[in-house]
Design brief:
Keywords: Cytoplasm, Nucleus. This is CDAN1-interacting nuclease 1. It is found in: Cytoplasm; Nucleus. The chain is about 45% helix and about 20% strand. With about 170 residues, it is an alpha/beta fold. It folds into 2 domains: about 1-35, no CATH class; about 40-160, 3-Layer(aba) Sandwich (Trna Endonuclease, Chain: A, domain 1), CATH 3.40.1350. Strands 1, 2, 3, 4, 5 and 6 form a 6-stranded mixed β-sheet that branches. Strand 2 and strand 3 (about 95-105) form a beta hairpin. The protein is elongated, with a radius of gyration of 20 Å. The chain starts with a helix and ends with a helix.
Amino acid sequence: SLASKTLINSMLRDPSQIPDGVLANQVYQCTVNDCCYGPLVDCIKHAIGHEHEVLLREMLLEKNLSFIAEDQLRAKGYDKTPDFILEVPVAVEGHIIHWIESKASFGDESSHQAYLQDQFWSYWNRFGPGLVIYWYGFIEELDCHRERGILLKDCFPTDIVTLRHSMA
C-alpha cells in the first residue's frame, strides 16, 4: 500500500526510524556506501551540475548574450524552465536557439529519452527551439531533432550568430 511505501522511503532516508538497531545500522551503511544512488553521490552530481551551469553563464556573459537564468524564471512563477533563456535568440549551425540547457553528464539513450519527455519538449512548447549541451558527450544518433528545434552539442558553440546585428 501507499502508506507502507511512504514509511519505507522515510526509513531509508532516516534509518534511525528503524526499530531494529542492527538493521538500522546496516541500512545506514548501505546508503553511505552506495556509489550510484547514495546521498554523497547526489551531492557530487549536484555540485558538478552547478559547476557547469556557472561555466555556461560565464561563456554567455563573455559573448555579451543577454539571458534570463533559471532562478530568475522560477521567481517569476515558471515551474519547468531551462537553465538559460536568451533574451535575443541566436543561430547555431543554422538553427535558431531561444534557450540553453546544461547537462553535466553523458547523453545516453535512456536518460536522453527521459529528458526529452520530462523537460526538453516542454521547454520547446513554452519557449521555442533550444540547445542542450551534454558536457560529457552524447550518442550521435540522438541528435535527430534539429529540424524540429532541439539541438545537441558537447561544448559551448563557437559559431554563434547574433541576430541583432543582421537586423540593421
